[in-house]
Amino acid sequence: MKGGTLRRAVRAVCAELPAGATGVRLSRPQDASLPQCRTDLTEDAHTHLYACARLPAQVRERAAAARDAARRLVKKSRELSDQADVLIREAEAATAALRETMRRATG
């Protein structure tokens, strides 16, 4: 989610809280927290964004589609990382076997 969208969503969540209760800093997306207790409002903002009846259905649908795409990308990234780990271990084992073969041949 882009920073501007997150800021708008956090503002919407904060608008539902009692006046003056937040003091939320929104200069950076990672600063979407309450300064008094450092509670991260990002998840609340996302939940609100995906369910807010005030938002047009098209916006909610696009937000949900973006969330789903991000989840798929994270899952694929983890799968590729796991595959890379397996290939690295196989390459290390093959290298060790080659060195052992070379040691035996010369020794």
Helix tally equals 3
Shape: elongated
β-sheet strand percentage: under 5%
The number of domains? 1
Description:
- The protein is an all-alpha fold and 107 residues long.
- It contains three helices and no strands.
- The longest helix is centred in the C-terminal third of the chain and has 50 residues.
- The chain is elongated.
- It starts with a helix and ends with a helix.
SSE arrangement:
Elements: H1 3-15, H2 42-51, H3 57-106
Helix pairs in contact: 1-2
What are the main properties of this structure?
107 residues; mainly alpha
Summarize this, please?
The protein has one domain (3-106). Helix content is 68%, strand content 0%. The chain is built from three helices and no strands.
